[in-house]
Write a structure and sequence with these properties.
2 copies of one chain form a homodimer. Helices cover about 70% and strands about 0% of the residues of chain A. By secondary structure, chain A is mainly α. Chains A and B meet through helix 7, helix 8 and helix 9 of A and helix 7, helix 8 and helix 9 of B. Chains A, B: Keywords: DNA-binding, Transcription, Transcription regulation.
Chain lengths: ~190, ~190
């Protein structure tokens, strides 16, 4: 019985993550979550107070995953530019968009401070992490001493997020790569010879 | 009578533009459009075949406005970098997001080639326009001869779109300015002394 409960709860969370990514908060009904999870209404309300609690759990898990996957490239050996390049150019489901970034276009998520918090925290973390790597590269003499790590990190995260926007508009993942390669070219001109 | 018709049609289009920006396609019901426009159901269907036709008209008008407003800075006198800076840093309703860029996160708009077309065309135009300005700056000797105009233009448009994402996540327009200033600093390091 315990195992069955755990599985249902897991299926509800994973279904909510998928639906939030595909349809957004307003487009994700409790009924759609139950159908995708293969769970009844009673079962859903046994595990969660409702769609809001499920969405919060789902968003937090997606945010945790995103950080863990980013660390795979960001904490790897190499120069600052090599680590940033590996992170920006790693395999992504570009046309589906960023599961965290997309939530910023979701009016119900943005209007709710509790649901917005994990989205905000993810970007605060990512900007800080990239700024640290850039500062490290600058201090090691790999990058131009005049480079501003915080401003550059924000620009890089913005290119990543905007790259998804351009790719979706054109229905072509190529546009993401063009934008990312474009900012990496600007950044590589700040490396010291 | 004719004037009243024109006004109702205009009110329906403008109400649809606002609602698409605030709520997205799925969150915009024909009833909500009618209520905001102060128009009855019969009146709406007298002017438009339905929500789809109204949305297409609204998106096209928003795209035309965006181009016209971009040209104010982009066709002004100055160096390539000055014109780009003026465009990127002009007054914007940052926390509302880009009325065109936001549509890329709207699953119903992206799934519909007719509604996606004006979104795609707007970004194709903007990337091309910025690439031309950068190429002009390079040919005039203002910018580094090795600069890739197309890739750089895509990165700049991506920063603009990603800047909205970061600002909305943090509920602070400041983040947009940090990202945009960050890419301008990278670009200004490519100017020739």
């Amino acid at each position: 019985m315990y195992t069955a409960w755990v599985n249902t709860s897991e299926r509800l969370i994973e279904s909510t993550r998928e639906l939030l990514w595909e349809r957004g908060y307003v487009g994700t009904s409790p009924k759609a979550i139950q159908q995708r999870a293969g769970a009844g209404q009673g079962s859903m309300y046994h595990h969660f107070a409702g769609k809001h609690e499920l969405a919060l759990t789902a968003i937090r898990r997606t945010a945790d995953d995103m950080r863990a996957r980013a660390e795979e490239q960001l904490s790897a050996p190499g120069t600052a530019l090599e680590r940033l390049t590996a992170y920006l150019l790693r395999e992504r489901d570009v046309l589906k968009g960023c599961p965290i970034g997309r939530l910023t276009q979701d009016p119900d998520v943005m209007a709710d401070p509790v649901l917005r918090a994990p989205v905000d925290e993810t970007f605060v973390w990512l900007r800080g992490r990239l700024a640290d790597i850039l500062a490290e590269g600058r201090d090691r003499g790999e990058l131009d001493a005049a480079l501003d790590p915080a401003g550059t990190a924000s620009a890089v995260v913005a290119v990543l997020q905007g790259g998804y926007v351009l790719a979706r508009a054109a229905d072509s993942a190529e546009l993401f790569h063009t934008a990312v390669t474009g900012v990496l070219a600007l950044l590589s001109s700040r490396t010291t010879p």
